[in-house]
Amino acid sequence: MRVAVVGATGAVGSTMLGVMRERGFPADEVVPFASERSVGRKIDHGDLDLEVRGLSEEAIAGFDIALFSAGGATSGEWAPRFAEAGAVVVDNSSRWRMSDDVPLVVAEVNPHALDDHRGIVANPNCSTMQMVVALKPILDQAGIERLVITTLQSVSGTGQRAVEELHDQAQALLAADDMPPPHVYPHQIAFNVLPQAGSFPEGSDSTDEELKLVNETRKILEAPDIGVSATCTRVPVYTSHSESVNVQTREPLSPAECRELLTAFPGVAVLDDPAQGVYPLAIDAAGRDEVLVGRIRRDPSHERCLNLWIVSDNLRKGAATNAVQLAELLHGRGLLRSGERRAA
Known about the structure:
Dihydrodipicolinate Reductase, domain 2; globular
């Protein structure tokens, strides 16, 4: 099995390569692709050094799977080309998520959606990803009428330049130096909270991050009637997104029942003893693949509402790990297109 990793030198791409090694992904050959400035660069991949290639019609032939994390423009142009050449693409960008003929899949939540792929599979937004893993067992047991969500999203979700901006600003403040002006964000991020994650589409008072939570949640959970209200914020944390989620169920569900459901669900770790200081923390989620859930409690204002605190590493489960899990499922369930390509 030949696997292409497109955007291999970025934060998510490099994490995908690492997750593949950790999980023993059964690839006979892994080929990294990146922009022209990275062509020829060597990437450490266990016992091998992988040489980065540039995208071209000749270079993309003969792959079984292509894992993409190179932005929407690259995915829009090259994902169909990989698919036409016989690969199944798992794409991390927002380019294909809401396309009717592209399944939007979280490994633990809706793996059956892979059956209908036409060569491209979409990975959800990282904030949506971690939330729906926690919501799935609740939906199955008690149904969901409405969600009210506030996210606290780390700067690594924006990219390496945002990580550097937070570092430089924090360093300047602690040293009492002049504050470098913000470039990535509209305001200082160090020691601050920005009530804006993402950008505002023309004519909308919701950011694209907030709209993703609305639309992607409904698509993944196959529940178009769920009401979703989202506020996405950016916080001065390097890795892991945190979310406060208020869940209004259709049928009664106690906090104890909710804990039992979540404890038994794959991919979830319940950390919920707040009196002893036990609850999910961003620093504890970093480097882990589980979705951490705690502060599970009744909303005193509504008999069918629960409050959850959900935390996950946005680079791993929020992007890289799910992509690799989907590749494993495609391989294990015989959903690759290698036979089609060889017959052609």
